[in-house]
Design brief:
Structural class of chain B: mainly alpha
Shape of chain B: globular
Low-confidence stretches of chain A: none
Largest interface: A-B, 80 and 79 residues
Low-confidence stretches of chain B: none
Oligomer: heterodimer
Largest sheet of chain B: none
Number of strands of chain B: 1
Distance between the termini of chain B: 40 Å
Order of helices and strands of chain B: HHEHHHHHHHHH
Strand content of chain B: under 5%
Largest sheet of chain A: 2 strands, antiparallel
Number of helices of chain A: 26
Helix content of chain B: 55-70%
Number of strands of chain A: 5
Helix content of chain A: over 70%
Strand order of the largest sheet of chain A: 1-2
Number of helices of chain B: 11
């Protein structure tokens, strides 16, 4: 079977898998089976593209297909995560317990198929159509619990944003069509700033880059956890793919394009993680980390663009490889984290971090998975997050050594942002794991939490295994990344020659082995020499769960430090009395782009459009009159 | 031979460094002070003891000390000591250096939170918060070194004492910034007081309150190694090499002792900075690094 057939079959199978869910008996299982078959075929097809080179096909006058190594990487990610998260969904969101289960299945298949279409599209038209399928289908998946007003609002916001983004993309592709005379996505002349602005708006809105992230935290937090995993893992990456694809067509772009993208990335990464620290809801916190990681990806992409414009192809190749690898890695560990968060919700019904606690003893599997994901997302060795951040750092360090020109100044900006992001992310995940999984339960629900069913833990274990695998053996990703970099039009030496991947793998493996050995040694030494007691807590003999440090306190100093951006709100009710009858403090971090920009903008728009109601009289005569007037106007023109 | 020398230095010098600091502080205060080998003796004694574990804790609690020590030792492999080169060197390894130490911090903080104690939570929060400012300062300082030395490895940046090279004066600013990073990362005065256990201002000591026996030994030794590694980076930045191995080794050890004396004097003569002011001091360190970088690149 040819690669093209494989991909087409895969897309069709995945797309129809949702309809299978409507079968009267065992619909979920059949649907999942069809989806997995499609995903396996699609993954094989993507691997075929990576092995054999780009694939092009078209129906004259109709849609066309063009898949190169860049697209193949995204396809692989889509099919892998869609299949794994769907397997998780079998236990997490079965149709017989959730009335929205079938609807999620239908939307799931359509979203996956739409994503596959986006990554296969060979021309602007096909791209837009697939993009719309993906974006609209996702709406139905994420609003599964639409009896909740919060979910409805988040869904509406998502819908508005994705429509606005699509509008920008239609303008973008039409503009490209007007300039080049063809819808095909091929190299373009010139580099008008409007193209960059449209691309950043349309794709940035989907990716959730600051300041276009307003829909993202709410939507990810409102969707069922496996849908959040798919959205955060793959859907927002469609925006990154679009940016890589479209900006890649403009080889004559000035360095400033790269600088703009890089600055956007720096802002996204630092602000994304800063906002994450201020959240109380576990899933909303994870959603903000998507903003952060999109920022890291954009840092790499911006660096690649700037370096390409400067003529440093080798550097651009490293940076682009870093961005692509981080896209892939983020898909894995963020899905893993969302699935683990889903296990927490499934087992305890809790979403507020400060009400959890002690979950590691009650659900050791999900706790371990969450810890792996947390260490990976913080970019800690020896896991996969470190490798991709290392690539971006390597690009920045090389830029620093470029003797002439002013573009080296981007390097300290990028490095400072990355370093700060790394430390903040570490704080955030130390907080989450420490407060939610360690210590004593902070509520009755947490004390009664149940472990996740085995299929859910199994799905997570696959992703956790991939985190470890790509951390220990980054060389595995190198050939695919080389192909992708070449497909983007960079002539550069293979990554293995440019980067110390072997040394990195040796250090990572050595570290892992040393940690294991040291741990086993300590365990052997302590065996039989342990006395159990209570936490010492400076001599206090009866510590209670309420004495534990809370997540809010943990984050307080940083939230105050970043107060210029976060504008935290704090309401304290502490009276003047010496003996307090009861004190109450609430702290809350708002999203300014949502509350200060988007909401007023919509209010203004709806007021403006409200004036149109005057014409809407609801009477037949008025309607006929309008038709007549319109007709007259048409004749006159 | 090189690796053996490196490991010997790593084993022998950290306790000595801590011993010198304690001796200096004692002398300034008019006391005699503990013997130089006190830390080594403490560690040896703790390793033979049993351990008391809180019922609240999980495996993460014991992983903290293990990870803390192992990653610090791994990071030490990237730093050149006296005359010898670093055992491991590859392009961009300074990123690995910083992230290894971050991994250590991650697990130390998790181990602290694992006990469910308010004290440890507080210390953990402070440690993680200050790292958010110390990390950019460290990275920007290293960037100045990268631009100056034209190499992206730890060993390359520290190949020659940049401060004494022609045009290396701006690296003095970086050295100062790194000294501040050294103090905060190792929880010394003016950021933290390593001698207090029960005050609300302490950081590192609060995080390890619940450890006992062999894990506590790992914590103590790991902290000493971390201090030594930072001191080694600082020494290699400011103490010039002569080319003769014996002289260089002697100069290195003398430099480490000098750093110990400086830390001891700082701890004896200055007070802890008020807690809300710590971020300002750290931001100053980052700014020093930025100035150093701009002047180096000029």
């Amino acid at each position: 079977m040819s690669v093209l057939t494989l991909l087409l079959v895969a897309t069709a199978a995945v797309g129809t898998s949702g309809l299978v869910a409507l079968a009267p008996r065992r619909g979920d299982q059949w649907s999942h089976g069809a989806l997995v078959l499609g995903c396996v075929a699609g993954a094989l097809g993507a691997l075929g593209v990576l092995a054999n080179g780009p694939l092009e096909a078209s129906i004259p006058g109709g849609p066309s297909v063009r898949v190169d190594a860049v697209g193949a990487l995204f396809l692989l990610q889509t099919f892998l995560l869609s299949a794994v998260a769907s397997a998780y969904g079998l236990t997490y969101w079965p149709s017989d317990r959730h009335p929205s289960g079938r609807r999620v299945r239908v939307a799931w298949g359509a979203t996956t198929a739409g994503l596959a279409g986006v990554f296969c599209a060979g021309d602007g038209m096909t791209f837009i159509v697939a993009w719309e399928v993906m974006a609209l289908a996702a709406f139905f998946a994420l609003t599964a619990e639409d009896h909740d007003p919060g979910v409805r609002e988040a869904g509406r916001l998502y819908l508005y944003c994705t429509r606005a983004g699509t509008l920008a993309l239609i303008v973008l592709f039409t503009w490209m069509h007007l300039r080049s005379g063809s819808w095909a996505l091929v190299a373009q002349e010139g580099a008008p700033w409007a193209i960059l602005a449209l691309a950043l708006f349309g794709f940035g809105l989907k990716a959730g880059a600051v300041p276009l992230h307003l829909w993202l935290p709410g939507a990810h937090a409102s969707a069922p956890s496996h849908v959040s995993a798919l959205m955060s893992g793959v859907l927002i990456k469609a925006g990154i793919y679009g940016l890589i694809r479209v900006l890649g067509l403009y080889a004559g772009a000035p360095v400033a394009w790269g600088a703009v993208v890089l600055a956007m990335g720096a802002a996204s990464s630092v602000l994304g993680v800063a906002f994450a620290i201020g959240q109380h809801d576990l899933k909303r916190l994870l959603a903000w980390h998507s903003v952060e990681n999109i920022g890291i990806i954009l840092l790499g992409l911006g660096l690649a663009l700037a370096a390409r414009s400067d003529g440093h192809d080798g550097l651009a190749a490293i940076a682009l490889a870093g961005a692509l690898l981080h896209t892939w890695n983020h898909g894995i560990f963020k899905s893993l984290l969302f699935l683990a968060a889903g296990a927490v919700i499934h087992g305890s019904g809790l979403r507020t971090i400060d009400r959890m606690g002690g979950l590691a003893r009650r659900m050791p599997g999900p706790a371990l998975m969450f810890l792996v994901g947390a260490a990976a997302i913080c970019g800690l060795p020896p896991l996969n997050g470190f490798v991709s951040e290392f690539l971006v750092y390597s690009g920045l360090l090389r830029l620093l050594l470029v003797p002439a020109g002013a573009s080296w100044l981007l390097a300290p900006l990028g490095v400072a942002a990355l370093a700060m992001t790394g430390a903040l992310a570490l704080l955030c995940f130390a907080k989450v794991y420490g407060v939610a999984f360690s210590g004593e339960p902070r509520s009755a629900e947490a004390a009664a939490a149940r472990d996740a069913p085995r299929p859910m833990t199994g799905a997570m274990a696959v992703l956790a295994g991939l985190c470890v695998l790509f951390g220990l053996a980054p060389v595995l990703a190198a050939p695919a990344l080389d192909r992708a970099v070449a497909a983007w039009g960079l002539g550069a030496a293979p990554l293995v020659e440019e980067l110390p991947l072997g040394a990195l793998a040796a250090m990572a493996t050595g570290l892992a082995v040393a940690l294991l050995l040291a741990g086993l040694l300590l365990r052997a030494r302590l065996k039989g020499h342990i006395t159990a007691g209570v936490t010492w807590d400076c001599g206090y003999a009866a510590p209670t769960a309420r004495m534990q440090y809370t997540a809010s306190s943990f984050a307080d100093t940083v939230v105050a430090l970043m107060g210029w951006a976060l504008a935290p709100k704090r309401s304290a009710e502490v009276g003047p009395a010496f003996y307090q009858p009861g004190a109450d403090v609430h702290s809350h971090v708002r999203d300014l782009s949502h509350e200060a920009v988007a909401r007023p903008a919509w209010r203004a728009t709806s007021r403006l459009l409200g004036r149109m109601h005057a014409f809407q009289r609801g009477s037949l005569h008025a309607g006929i009159l309008y038709i007549l007037l319109a007709l007259l106007l048409a004749f006159l023109l | 031979v090189n690796l053996a020398l490196h490991l010997t230095a790593l084993l022998a010098l950290p306790p000595l460094l801590v011993g010198v600091i304690q001796r200096v502080k004692a002398r300034v205060a008019g006391r005699r002070g503990p013997p130089m080998g006190q830390l080594a003796w403490d560690v040896a004694r703790l390793l033979r003891k049993d351990v008391v574990l809180s019922r609240t804790t999980s495996w993460v609690f014991l992983a903290g000390p293990v990870v803390g020590l192992v990653v610090t030792l791994a990071a030490a492999l990237l730093v050149p000591f006296g005359s010898s080169a670093a055992p491991v060197e590859f392009a961009g390894d300074l990123v690995l250096f910083a992230y290894l130490l971050a991994l250590g911090r991650f697990f130390t903080v998790l181990a602290a939170l694992d006990t469910g104690s308010a004290f440890q939570g507080m210390g953990a929060a402070r440690d993680a918060t200050w790292a958010c400012l110390a990390e950019p300062a460290l990275f920007l300082g290293l960037m100045a070194g990268v631009r100056f030395a034209g190499a992206t490895t730890m060993a390359g940046v520290l190949r020659q004492a940049a401060v004494w090279e022609p045009g290396g004066a701006p690296m003095l600013l970086v050295a100062l910034a790194l000294l501040l990073v050294l103090l905060v990362e190792n929880c010394r005065i003016p950021f933290d007081d390593p001698t207090t256990h029960l005050e609300l201002t302490m950081v590192h000591e609060a995080m390890v309150l619940d450890h006992s026996g062999p894990p506590l030994a790992l914590v103590l030794y790991g902290a000493a190694v971390k201090l030594f590694v930072y001191a080694a980076v600082f020494v290699r930045l400011v103490v010039p090499l002569t080319g003769s191995p014996v002289q260089d080794e002697a100069a290195f050890v003398a430099g480490i002792l000098a750093v110990a004396i400086v830390i001891g004097l700082i701890e004896s003569t200055t007070a802890r900075v008020q807690l809300p002011r710590v971020p300002r001091l750290l931001i100053s360190a980052a700014l020093l690094s930025v100035f150093g970088l701009l002047l180096v690149a000029r």
